[in-house]
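Hey,
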Amino acid sequence: MAEAAAALASRRALHFVFKVGNRFQTARFYRDLLGMKILRHEEFEEGCKASCNGPYDGKWSKTMVGYGPEDNHFVAELTYNYGIGDYKLGNDFMGLTLVSSQAVTNAKKSEWPVREIAEGIFETEAPGGYKFYLKNDSQPSSDPVLKVTLAVSDLCRSLHYWSDLLGMKVYEKDEEQQRALLGYADNQCKLELQGIKGAVDHGTAFGRIAFSCPKKELPDIEALMKKESQKILTPLVSLDTPGKATVQVVILADPDGHEICFVGDEAFQELSKMDPSGDKLLDDVSLAYLLITVPFAPVLTEQPQSMLGWGESP
């Protein structure tokens, strides 16, 4: 029992994957409004073996943004498929909640749409329609990202999956409100499950939540899911990033089809190191693609992150 508890305690919530259709506007939202940093940016010439960029085979990019490194922060992975300008939202992703009065101030100053839905809680949307909830308190020195909320069609069934099978601790449970809060550690971003009436629809914008664990646990996770007749989207596989560490992952799907990535922590810590050139890499490729796809685009004298309204899709 003690060994199993220690293994679960070594798991970490890493990031949530968002598909984005406009890197200019998206970068502005995360950098200028939320106040996050570009942690790293990577370009890929073909689709991922684990469908990290969705069901697309062409060129794509990955941009990691957050308030700090994934060693101790929950971050966002922004996936951009070249030539795909928008995605259909479903009802699966219900929001990401963070603490930052500065983000609330930034939204109001820049006239970004934001509304107070409860005392001290403001709702806004990232480009693409993804909902964010901003608590109007001073940003903590620890990770400001509190929770990711996902819709489920049967809370009891989902709790069995996430708690009994994946080992998450249940921090809160409200059967009347059909919600539960789970996590692997007190100081990590939590997963909130919110029951809805009817089926969960993932649209084409469906995301993916990622966790790390010791590499040796990956075969055990895969074996457990096989034993329990749960869905495995991608069996244990190695993923290469040019010039960086190769990581091993297992991709699962919960009973409602939410995608879950478990990645070997040892290699991931090497892969996820912050790249000080991340901002420049993102801005350079975004501007270059804009100039190619918009033939009469004016010469830009400002950095792309300060530009609102320029799309990347022709």
